[in-house]
Amino acid sequence: MRKGFSILLTLLLCLSLWISAVGEVKAHSTSSKGSLVIVGGSLGSSNNEVYQAFIERAGGNKKAKIGIIPVASSSLNSSYDFKEKMVELGIEEKSVEILQISNHDLKGTDEDEAKWKNNVNKKKIVKKIEGLTGIWFVGGDQIKITSTLLKKNGKKTKALEAIWKIYQNGAVIGGTSAGAAIMSDVMISGGDSIGGFKNEFVNEDIYYPDKEYNPVFISKGLGFFQHGIVDQHFDERARLGRLISTAVDFEANKEKYYSYGIDEDTALVVDNKDQKASIVGRGGVAVIDTNSAKKDENKGTIQNVKFSYLSSGDMIHLDTKEIKMKEGKYQTKGEEYYDFQPLPATGILSSYGRLKEYLAYALVDNASADSVKSFVYESSGEGFKLSFKEAEDTNGYWGYTDGQKDDYSIVNVVLDIEPASVTFKEEEHIFENYREPVFRPSSSAVESSTIKGNLVMAGGALGSSNSAVYNKFIELARVKGDTRIGIIPAASSSLKSSELFKKDLIQYGVENEAIEILPISNHDFKGTVENESSWLDNRNNEELAKKIKDFTAIWFVGGDQTNITASLLNDDMTHSKVLNAIWDIYKNGAVLGGTSAGAAIMSDVMIAGGGSFDTLSKGFTETYDGMTQQEGGPGYLEQGLGFFQEGIIDQHFDNKARLGRLIAVTDELGEQDEISYGIDEDTAMVVYNNQNTIEVIGRGGVSLVDLSSMKKAGRKMENIELSWLTEGDQFSLDTHQLKIKESKVETKGYEYYNSPVAPHSGVLTPHGSLGHFLSYQLVDNEAVQEVKSYSFHEGKGFELTFKKGKETNGYWGYKDGGKDHYSYEKVIVDVVPGSFLIKD
Fold first, then answer.
1. What is the pLDDT of residues 252-284, one digit of tens each?
2. From the CB of residue 301, how many other CB atoms can be counted at a distance below 10 Å?
3. Domain count, the chain
4. Cα-based distances in Å from 84 to 48, 75, 478, 826
5. What is the signed CA dihedral for 613, 618, 624, 629, rounded to 10 degrees?
6. In whole angstroms, how far apart are CA 4 and each of 214, 215, 242, 411, 421?
7. What CATH number has the domain bearing residue 306?
8. Cβ proximity of 490 and 569 under 8 Å
């Protein structure tokens, strides 16, 4: 794995550079009265919590005087956007200034900003900085920041001295992406996790155009954060490996300091006076402890790394290294919610495929596991195995965020890394025990063209702040100016989710009197005096059915979809009187909606359980063991309610990695030339029956799975077409044509990226969700025509190849400020079974 003397020499050079880098800045130490707002990148314009944290520490919107440093960017757009946001939040426009600090020309302006490079030593700029209460560094290239504010000999320019002065006296310094990378003494300026694990460090910007990884580029930061090393874009770009490797080799005081990996749209907010750091925003912060880590360069191993993953509201005492959880979270240790055998995280078919989610659901909140594994490797198969283990002090903390989204924090998971190779061999008939489904659906026999109502199907984890979905449901619920909404609680184990949804509707403007939680259930709810299992008789209650005929909307909450169908279908699978009433209002113009289980019931074929890997390899079962079945095992199908007549629906599609099971179910039970639909979390697929069109709204996307041209031999399936639509995109159910949101542009022929891609192999894969992996790594990447992912367990599994075809295209734009917003169409997917040989 190592390159002998040359790598050692490079490492020594980096160490020398680091020692010279920190010597001067360390003199300031932690005596600063100021604060830091360190953002991991892709800060959404709607993420007011982070912006307010910055403004508050700058003196509040009446006293704040903000200077924006644009040098990292290629244009002034991000600086203008930040200024506009400051003004929107109440700061006077004259109190927010873009400082003329740059060492290069910026696009889109008449002025040559390269002329600003000498401003960093001019009194005019220094005087402006000395009157500020806050400095903001925009994102881009961190080297442009340091090469502008530091002299060639490593000394500070006068502008940087002025920034340090106001920081020491109480000002706040903030930045996103590149503006976060510069915060620590050791600055990580490039490279990836594989490069880190390979122990390849450089002190210049070296890029391997023909390799699937790059060495870790270490340089000198500005040192405002004196408590460890900082990395950014942490989860989205899977930078755990590069941060661990950097911390092991370059953090001089491991006993005293952690290292920190900050997710996108998330901030580490540091208050030096109190010696505290808090997490603010929509992602998390990884806290890496390498004090007891052991590295063996000859074997290529790193052992006994401890790390924690914190979320919004959690806090760290920087002087004692104590971690304090947000109030209201519950410990998982000894009270684990899940009890299933997790598969290793090996690729695109791994449930909870991102690092924090995987460790939360599969390890710390799972009674059946005390260790889990993942991999990262190149196309050659050479790479590394990651073993995540629970120790005595490992714990998880769970609560809700943004309504009823799971919110986890994790402390003291132990990680060992060792070299490993993965070899795949195609074997068409390796899964000989695959079982076809016995289940066959009965059709609702209602032509969608006769239905005047609409559907709002959310993929689960619907945030209370997701105004697009709530407002669309409310808009469609207004039939002839009237609104009356019924909530069906049957899927849940309690009434809390129904009560919360009602509260959310009121928040969005619906009158309390217009909303009713309907007494429909087949089981008792927790936390109530009444035994709601007696409500099962209500499915044929004529008064309840008559009441429903006055409703303009019905919403099904999430939980277990089999409880919904059992509460509305008679024992002989005929429609109950209440279900007939729901059908009547739907046909006459009402909107039906639901999240998670409430989306699963919408098609005739209802997917009630199973994981992607097990459904593809084992097939289907006729038995169902409740919620555990939803975390894995062979597929389980039941009769749905059939409100959506144009295909099969699956949900939690991205987070629970359900591509494999939707392909398997569609292969077995899909109609000829019919599309199947996988809806991501916090996202809704809206069906307009009168237009026979669907629209995507919300924060994720909807995957369209088309098997009409598939070729199949045993468990080998080739030429599947996969498209992914995101917010604002539409799809015609008649013509199967896409209508992409106008603000997006085609990527075909104008690809932004141009680099080789390692396989999707687990939690250390950049852009790891299905939609993002294919967007960034394939359709917007000129260098590749195909990318691969491997999923395996106990020596058996699948090779998935995603390819560009003649009709493949991608579409890109911005959303929520400067976040990338992708869609793609007609990516070709091949699923090939085979055997795997893993060598440690």
1. 999 999 999 999 999 999 999 999 999 999 999
2. 17
3. 1
4. 13, 16, 35, 38
5. -20
6. 17, 15, 20, 36, 21
7. 3.40.50.880
8. no
